[in-house]
What we know:
- This protein is α/β, with parallel strands linked by helices.
- The chain has one domain: Alanine racemase (TIM Barrel, Alpha-Beta Barrel), CATH 3.20.20.
- Helices cover about 40% and strands about 15% of the residues.
- The chain has 9 helices and 8 strands.
- Helix 4 packs across helix 5.
Amino acid sequence: MLPLLQRYFAQQTLIANLVGERPLPVRLLAVSKTRPANDVVALYKAGQRDFGENYLQEALKKQQLLANFDITWHFIGPIQSNKTRDISRYFSWVHSVDRLKVAVRLDQQRPINLAPLNICLQVNIDEEDTKSGFYLDELSNVIEPILALKNVNLRGLMAIPKAHKSTDEQRDGFKRLAQAQEKINKSFNIQLDTLSMGMSGDLEAAIAEGSTMVRIGTAIFGERVKNTV
């Protein structure tokens, strides 16, 4: 297996090639869940600043260890109501807001000395029973209440479509998410600017359909291992 930094730079090159002449860049979010703090430091020294975590307690430990590094922390995992206070306090982005109640709690619990928390609404694009998130036809009902919140900043949508082998099949779910965001922007006269979509196995399809942020874990860090923070 290639060393960590070689895999990281290979992903950067792949993303740059896929983006090509597109005017909007694609932001690489390095998903560091279950990976030791030393791996985060290695990527930081190579220029990476955005890191995604799924598990709150693990993330908080890393943040303590890496408090002297100017890292932008993204929470991308499932959100339990009793975890919103710490998520709101210790992260700059939350990609997995799957209920209006969660958005309200994050808003209420965001410390006033911090900038508004950037959030994405998680969309259950294929209406799978095993996944959380808003259905597409529910989105229009929650946009205005969320826009009215003062301490969260609605940036866009996130989804994890069904797994497919072919790029054409993968593109379908991403296309529907991009269309939903375009519809929201027109209907509410706003400019959501983030499509958080695409992971190690389908980033090509996601970028082809307009992703602005890809969440890459395995392709950079290798197969998941037990955390050794």
